[in-house]
Amino acid sequence: MNSIEKTIGIIEKSWSTNPVLVKHNGYENPIPLRCLLNPVSNEYLAKLKSLSLPPTFKEFRSFTNGAELFKDELYGQWGLKLYNIDELDHESNYHKNQRTQDFILGDIIVGEFYGDSDLLLLRADPKSTDFGYIYVVLPLDDRKDWYLVSRSFEEFLHQFVLHQGNKFWAT
């Protein structure tokens, strides 16, 4: 079992059944959080095979067609939505059209954070030195100010679960 499978196992065992209260930055969060992994179908897996994506992201996607990670169960103001396969193109194109000066070849918006306007970006240009890197796109800041949060989706997912959905890059 590799790291992606282990992390998915932790999500399913500890976060998918019942909402959980957590501590963020030493303080108890009074709002329960939960993770939900969308099921996959044979049609989805066939579509996934045809996409050119970094290996660890593609591996994660072989287990789930999108997800809600550490979503605030009461108000929906916390957590991360990872887009399903049908949303990936639409959301990436939408945001690229809104901010043409900030996005470059190979940028894929793979998710959005609930409660603010931050986006999760995957670098998917195999010719680029940052292929597979994960960035957090800030709504008002130029590209140079975006957070580089990990060098792979596997690393990002592991850290995000380890920090129970807390934005570890901003603390």
Number of structural domains: 1
Cα Rg: 16 Å
Q: What is the strand arrangement across the widest sheet?
A: 3-4-5-6-7-8-9
CATH class: Alpha Beta
Q: Span from first to last CA? A: 31 Å
What's the SSE pattern? HEEEHHEEHEEEEH
| Mean pLDDT over the residues | 93
CATH topology: SMI1/KNR4-like
Percent helix, as a range, is 25-40%
- Compute the number of strand runs: 9
CATH architecture identity: 3-Layer(aba) Sandwich
Proportion of residues in extended strands:
15-25%
Low-confidence stretches: none
- State the CATH superfamily name: SMI1/KNR4-like
The main sheet comes to:
7 strands, antiparallel
Number of helices: 5
Helix- and strand-based class? alpha+beta
General form? globular
Protein name: SMI1/KNR4 family protein
Pfam family, one: SMI1_KNR4
Domain Knr4/Smi1-like: 50-158
Structural description of this entry:
The protein is of the alpha+beta class and 171 residues long. The chain has a single domain, classed as SMI1/KNR4-like, CATH 3.40.1580.10. The protein contains five helices and nine strands; from the N terminus they run αβββααββαββββα. It has a seven-stranded antiparallel β-sheet. A two-stranded antiparallel ribbon has the order 1-2. A hairpin with a 5-residue loop joins strand 6 and strand 7. Helix 1 runs parallel beside helix 5. The protein is globular. It starts with a helix and ends in a 9-residue tail after the last helix. The model has no long low-confidence stretch (mean pLDDT 93).
